[in-house]
Structure formats: structure tokens, C-alpha cells
């Protein structure tokens, strides 16, 4: 897992091991080499050949790799096995256990100066942090991984860049997340770095923020590119994630059956790969599909299954997001008190931990309060939701919220304030998600 050290470092290591074993330079050299040659090796004045180092290693009773790199002979194999185990642990939803495994790997990578392993461990820690809703910590891990990979070609840095973008997106910083993804896509496409896995990861990751910003045309285009790239992708988990993201664009276009089919494909891949957290997310999205189609009992069943799976894994942020969707279904089924009880544990989320879903919780609490005749509480929830969405730049949801607030203000006799709310909503509806977005990324070779 690395190149041989410089002659001086190897020479010092040979001398230390020889002294520890009580050997003279003559005993180490015989019968092939001279004591004088061993002396020059130990002094670092000569770059010993592989043959000479293998002879010395044999006389010292250590593996050749350990002599030339200072790392135990089985280290590379052992670390690869442990890395695979950490990845499997995270995939099954045990984020806390996986984080401890990644921390141990990070310590070993730093001890043995293994930059590639260090970057992989940092990426794993970043993913664990996102699952636990620790967005700032996750972003910092991804930034450190990028630093480790600074000399690696751009496709190799894409997972770290994508992780940082997702952390910003979940924190409600939609435009900056889009900027990170689009600028990386442009650099890949215009530099001829057409790595299918890297491109697919970025296009699939762009769909969520595009949809929340109301930029549905750009989301649909990203979905089209992702679907075209999928046959070239060698990572089935990435293909499954892509199908889950594409389902959002199909939903927005009213193509519910196709969205359900895409989610079924993703769920089957996740079951095959034993990716429990991602499978829970598929149940979540299928619940949303059923809710849009008016199949509320099926929606509730899917969302409860997702919530049970995510809660068991302590995926705090995602559990909170599913809770908002479930509360909406319960409200639509006439169980508003139960919905409000669920939301009270969610709507205190700060903008650092899920601004869009926190705003959705306030919006629904406002509707429930308004239905109960408590207009003051309803207005307070609508205003708090508006503040969160404005900071996030979630234009698609802002227009609808402005309508709700305007209707409430009109019914309570504040006509001018209602008109202001409607005008604000119309502004967001007129050009959703495009006010600060630049040109779309360059098209990949398909």
C-alpha cells in the first residue's frame, strides 16, 4: 500500500532491527555480501537493490515489505478487510458502529502515512455523520477527504465533493449545493474526464436540490442524463440511488406509475445488496408516491415501515424527515391530533439540520392550527416556515406557503398584508429556481 522509503530511512530501520536481534554486520551480510556493504546500507549512502533487501529481510526474520516500508506485512490485507467491514456496517444502517470502525482505520492510516486509506476513512465518517444529522461534522470530514485527494484526478475527488454538496443541501443551502455539483460536472465534461460513475453520482445528487428550488426542467434533464449513464456504471448501489432520485422527477410530472416502478427497481437492488438505510428511503418515497395518488392507507404503511427502519438505526435527520411525511398523511386521514403530536418532536430542528423539512413541519402545524381556529398560532408557524424556506432558496415550496399565509391574512381582515404575501408568492412562481442559477452544466457524452 505504498512505495519503498528513502535509503536513509531504510538504513536506520536495518540498523535498529539488527541491533535488536543482537547481530553483527558480518552476520547480517554473510554469505552473499560484505560487512562494508551493510555499513553503507545502514548509513543510507547506497540505494540497496531488491535482491539485497530481500536477503537482509530474510536474515532479520521480517517480511520484505515491512523492511522497505516500515509497515507490517499483513497490514494492507488487514486494512482492506476492515474497510470492507466498515462499509458493510454503514450499509446495514449501524452508523454509530461504522463510525467507530472508520475512526480506527483513520488512526492507522495516519500512523502508517496511507493517504488513500485516510481519504476513504474520512469519506466514511462523513457519511456516518450525515446519517446522524450532524451536518457540520459531515461537511468537515468531506473537506478533509478532499484535501487528502488534492493530487488525485477529479473523478477520484467526486465522492468527497458530492458529500460536501449533500451536507450543504441538507442544511438548507440549496444554491451552494447546486453550485458545487454543477461546477464539478462542467469541469468533468469539458475536460474530457468522462467517468460514468462520477457523472452518474453528480447528476443523481443534483435532482433533490433542483426539485426543492423549483427548477423542475433542470431536474428532469439531470434524470435523463443519469438514466442514460446507468448502463455504463459499475456500481449497482449507485444505480439504485439514481432510480430513487429519478422517481422525484417522475412524480413532479404526474407519472406516478413510472415513479413507483423506478422505486421498485431501486428497492430490489437494495435488498440484494443488503443496504438497509437505502431500502428504508425507498419505503419512504413509495409512501410519498401513494400519498400523491390518494392511496393514504398504503402511504401510511410504507412511511411507518421506513420510520421503523430508520429509527432502529438512529438515523436522526432522515427519521425526522419521514415523520413530517407521515404526519401529513395522518392529517389527510383526519387524525390531526396524532399528526401534531408527531410534529412536535420535529419542528424544533434548526436550519443546520434539515431546513426544508423543518419548514414543512411548521407549514403542517400551521394548517392544523388554522383548522382548529387558532389563527395566531397558524400565522406564527407559517412565518417561521417562510423564514426557513427563504434562507434555503426553496422556491417551489415558498410559492405555496405564501398562498397559505395570504389566505390566512385575508380571512383575518389584513388585506394589504395578504396582497404582499400573494405578490411574494407570484414572484417565486414566475421563475422558480432560476433566479441565480447559471447555464446548465455541459452535456456528457452519451
Indicate the overall shape: elongated
- Distance N terminus to C terminus? 35 Å
Structural class: mainly alpha
Query: What characterizes the major β-sheet?
Result: none
Question: Helical segment tally?
Answer: 23
Would you count the extended β strands for me? 0
Q: What is the CA-atom radius of gyration, in angstroms?
A: 28 Å
Keywords:
single chain, 446 residues, mainly alpha
Walkthrough of the structure:
This protein is mainly α. Helix content is 76%, strand content 0%. The chain has helices at 7-20, 25-29, 35-42, 50-60, 64-69, 75-91, 95-111, 115-131, 135-148, 154-170, 174-190, 196-213, 216-229, 236-252, 256-273, 276-292, 296-312, 316-332, 336-343, 355-371, 375-392, 395-411, 415-430. Helix 10 (154-170) runs antiparallel to helix 11 (174-190), helix 16 runs parallel beside helix 18 (316-332) and helix 21 runs antiparallel to helix 22 (395-411). The longest helix is centred in the middle third of the chain and has 18 residues, at 196-213. The chain is elongated, with a radius of gyration of 28 Å. Residues 430-436 have low confidence and may be disordered.
Amino acid at each position: 500500500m505504498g512505495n519503498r522509503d528513502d535509503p536513509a530511512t531504510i538504513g536506520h530501520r536495518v540498523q535498529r532491527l539488527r541491533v535488536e536481534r543482537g547481530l553483527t554486520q558480518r552476520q547480517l551480510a554473510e554469505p552473499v555480501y560484505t560487512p562494508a556493504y551493510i555499513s553503507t546500507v545502514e548509513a543510507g549512502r547506497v540505494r540497496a537493490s531488491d535482491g539485497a533487501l530481500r536477503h537482509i529481510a530474510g536474515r532479520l526474520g521480517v517480511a520484505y515489505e515491512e523492511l522497505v516500508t516500515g509497515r507490517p506485512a499483513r497490514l494492507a490485507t488487514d486494512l482492506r478487510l476492515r474497510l470492507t467491514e466498515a462499509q458493510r456496517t454503514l450499509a446495514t444502517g449501524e452508523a454509530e458502529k461504522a463510525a467507530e470502525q472508520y475512526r480506527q482505520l483513520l488512526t492507522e492510516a495516519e500512523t502508517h502515512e496511507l493517504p488513500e486509506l485516510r481519504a476513504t476513512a474520512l469519506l466514511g465518517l462523513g457519511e456516518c455523520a450525515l446519517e446522524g444529522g450532524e451536518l457540520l461534522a459531515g461537511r468537515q470530514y468531506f473537506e478533509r477527504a478532499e484535501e487528502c485527494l488534492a493530487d488525485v484526478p477529479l473523478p477520484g475527488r467526486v465522492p468527497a465533493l458530492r458529500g460536501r454538496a449533500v451536507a450543504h443541501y441538507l442544511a438548507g443551502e440549496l444554491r451552494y449545493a447546486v453550485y458545487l455539483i454543477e461546477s464539478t460536472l462542467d469541469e468533468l465534461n469539458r475536460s474530457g474526464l468522462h467517468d460514468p460513475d462520477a457523472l452518474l453520482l453528480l447528476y443523481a445528487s443534483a435532482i433533490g436540490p433542483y426539485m426543492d428550488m423549483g427548477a423542475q426542467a433542470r431536474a428532469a434533464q439531470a434524470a435523463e442524463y443519469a438514466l442514460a449513464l446507468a448502463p455504463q456504471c459499475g456500481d449497482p448501489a449507485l444505480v439504485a440511488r439514481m432510480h430513487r432520485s429519478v422517481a422525484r422527477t417522475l412524480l413532479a410530472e404526474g407519472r406516478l406509475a413510472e415513479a413507483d416502478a423506478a422505486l421498485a427497481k431501486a428497492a430490489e437492488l437494495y435488498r440484494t445488496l443488503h443496504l438497509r438505510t437505502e431500502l428504508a428511503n425507498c419505503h419512504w418515497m413509495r409512501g410519498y408516491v401513494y400519498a400523491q395518488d390518494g392511496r393514504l392507507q398504503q402511504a401510511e404503511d410504507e412511511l411507518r415501515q421506513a420510520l421503523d427502519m430508520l429509527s432502529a438505526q438512529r438515523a436522526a435527520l432522515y427519521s425526522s424527515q419521514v415523520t413530517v411525511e407521515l404526519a401529513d398523511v395522518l392529517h389527510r386521514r383526519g387524525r390531526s391530533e396524532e399528526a401534531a403530536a408527531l410534529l412536535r418532536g420535529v419542528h424544533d430542528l434548526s436550519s443546520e439540520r434539515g431546513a426544508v423539512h423543518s419548514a414543512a413541519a411548521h407549514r403542517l402545524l400551521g394548517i392544523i392550527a388554522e383548522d382548529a381556529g387558532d389563527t395566531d398560532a397558524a400565522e406564527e408557524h407559517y412565518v417561521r416556515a417562510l423564514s426557513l424556506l427563504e434562507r434555503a432558496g426553496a422556491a417551489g415550496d415558498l410559492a405555496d406557503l405564501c398562498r397559505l399565509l395570504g389566505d390566512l391574512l385575508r380571512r383575518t381582515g389584513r388585506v394589504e398584508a395578504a396582497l404582499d404575501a400573494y405578490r411574494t408568492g407570484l414572484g417565486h412562481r414566475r421563475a422558480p429556481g432560476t433566479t441565480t442559477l447559471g447555464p446548465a452544466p455541459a452535456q456528457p457524452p452519451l
